[in-house]
Amino acid sequence: EKKKIKLSSKDREKEPNGKHKPSSKVKQSDSPSGVSSSAVKCEAGDGDMHEDVKADPSERAQHDGHEKSGSLEINNNIEKNNNKQKTRSKSSKERHNRKEKSEQTADVKPVDGDSNQADEGQGCESEATRKQETDEPQAAAPVKIKKKKVKDEKSPDDKNQPSGKKRKKQSPEHDKAEKSKNIERDEDDKKKKKAKKEDKKDQESDKWKWWEEGKLSDTQKWSSLEHKGPYFAPEYEPLPDNVCFCYDGQPVKLSPATEEIASFYAKMLDHEYTTKEVFQNNFFSDWKEEMTPKESELIQTLSKCDFSQIHKYFVEKSEERKNMTKEEKQVLKDEASRLTEEYGYCLLDGHREKIGNFKLEPPGLFRGRGEHPKMGKLKKRIQPEDVAINCSEDSKIPEPPAGHRWKRVQHDNTVTWLASWLENIHGRPKYIMLNPSSKLKGEKDWQKYETARRLKMRVNSIRKQYRRDWKSREMKIRQRGVAIYFIDKLALRAGNEKDDESADTVGCCSLRVEHISLHRRLDGQEYVVEFDFLGKDSIRYYNKVPVEKQVFKNLKLFIKYKDPEDDLFDRITTINLNKTLNESMSGLTAKVFRTYNASTTLQDQLNKLTTEDMTVEEKILSYNRANRAVAILCNHQRAAPKTFEKSMQLLQEKIQKKKEQIEEAKKELKEAKKAHKDAPSDKSKK
């Protein structure tokens, strides 16, 4: 800037009339008023030394008009100075802003010009100087003063002035602000997620390590127990008036109780259960008992009943639930969380423990597994008067629903259940128990696995004993030896005696002659036994197993002179077998054998399938394969669902698509190898 001022001063001194010489002298020495043009320049430009101070074209025109001498040299010098200033500016954007602000301050130029004329006028007697005093200062001076004014004009009022250009200037800032808000929002979400994780970690760290504490006793299960009781199923909501039940083609208005049971059947119309005669007969029999006398007199046969309108109504309701918005689903989710928080936890010995099944079963129709003789019967609504509550004496007793009372309240710390009732189908008690991760369940599992550990130390001697029993002269001992062999080798359940009202499921001790087939040679193996029966939950057990020669001989002896429906082991019972096992080792039952063999199988499979250098994904795959081997051993399987065939078809299509992709990739690889061989390079190698 100093070089710029000196250059303009030298240009003025070169003029023949010397009218600018006083100006150069004032620059070099302090003026009487103490304010020189250089001082003004410095005051205006100290903060923005490299900013553009280019004069307006209109002002330049006025200046050219004032200079009657028409010195071309001065104009050229001014243009040169302006060009130098332009190259020293920060950016084109800043030049644009400074020019805009210069235009906004144009209305106050005369005042600034007058104030500068007093400084510039000393020692100047030429006509050009007098014209400058009346009109406009020199080209360089007003630029400097305007620059100062621009700085002064940066006020709050200036910011509030509406301007299209200013709005454009603010829009990036607005976008930046929005972006920062979004970043803050994302950071808040991350913080919340992090807080949830930390809370989860805290909960895990605060988890009750009951196994590190001493056991109370073999009989006492807890010292204190407090809970809210069970959650009852919501009351029945009657059907709309436009949905009706029809009998023999005529609409019939049913009573609420009768209508509710009819809706149970209507919901299952598209299920195979409603096509079974046993299901239909049991349903109609129980439904008739709940009808009013008038309804019972009218409705005589199930074949004339039309449930189609009710079925259609519930199908539409189901579709509505599926098509709920995210917000509506969230409302239901929040309500479920609230119920879990209120009813799903209890205080056990001062610790918060999760309850397994705090919701009581809603009324409906019993299905059962397999061909159950009681399928279709009515599961009645459970009322508080049917429920017994178990809690500690010093705890707050759960409050029953309004207008009801509990069947009884007891304080028995030798049992682990919180509530109990009798279900009406079999007349057996049902319970509300704690979650499998709780102390009471954990202690039971712990004890089971510790017994299995002890069996590991004694299993060889037990195996030697039942092998000796195969050759016993007493048939009872022979049968017991073969049965224990099956339980040990095949992980069969012991089996219990069944009544006529239960499904026809069997275990080892309840096997019948019809459940096995003996093959001297089969599929290249000798002494093969073919098993085919329904086990627990009516799950089919089918297996072909090669056995030892003595076992095969004994089985032939056991089935001799027997009919297919006769018991295979007719001399022993489950009680007798478990008593013998308990004599061999304290606490040993047929169930412990299943636990031991399942654990041993899992460990053996893991040893075979895993190595230390495996990835996590490979280890998970190996574990799943080992777990499947255990499932096969224990016959842990489920019945095929309705969509099984469709799901398998989709999987086969995916597999086929993958195979095609692999074949395509192999072709591409072959072509790439060929191209690399013809013209090798790093790119072709990759």
Automatic annotation (TrEMBL):
Entry coiled-coil feature ranges: 315-342
Residues covered by region (Disordered): 1-207, 662-686
UniProt feature, compositional bias: Basic and acidic residues: 8-18, 43-70, 100-112, 150-160, 170-207
EC number, as in UniProt: 5.6.2.1
InterPro entries, alphabetized: DNA_brk_join_enz, DNA_topo_DNA_db_N_dom1, DNA_topo_DNA_db_N_dom2, TopoI, TopoI_cat_a-hlx-sub_euk, TopoI_cat_a/b-sub_euk, TopoI_cat_euk, TopoI_DNA-bd_euk
Function noted in UniProt: Releases the supercoiling and torsional tension of DNA introduced during the DNA replication and transcription by transiently cleaving and rejoining one strand of the DNA duplex. Introduces a single-strand break via transesterification at the specific target site 5'-[CT]CCTTp site in duplex DNA. The scissile phosphodiester is attacked by the catalytic tyrosine of the enzyme, resulting in the formation of a DNA-(3'-phosphotyrosyl)-enzyme intermediate and the expulsion of a 5'-OH DNA strand. The free DNA strand then undergoes passage around the unbroken strand thus removing DNA supercoils.
Family: Belongs to the type IB topoisomerase family.
Protein name: DNA topoisomerase I
Lineage: Eukaryota, Metazoa, Chordata, Craniata, Vertebrata
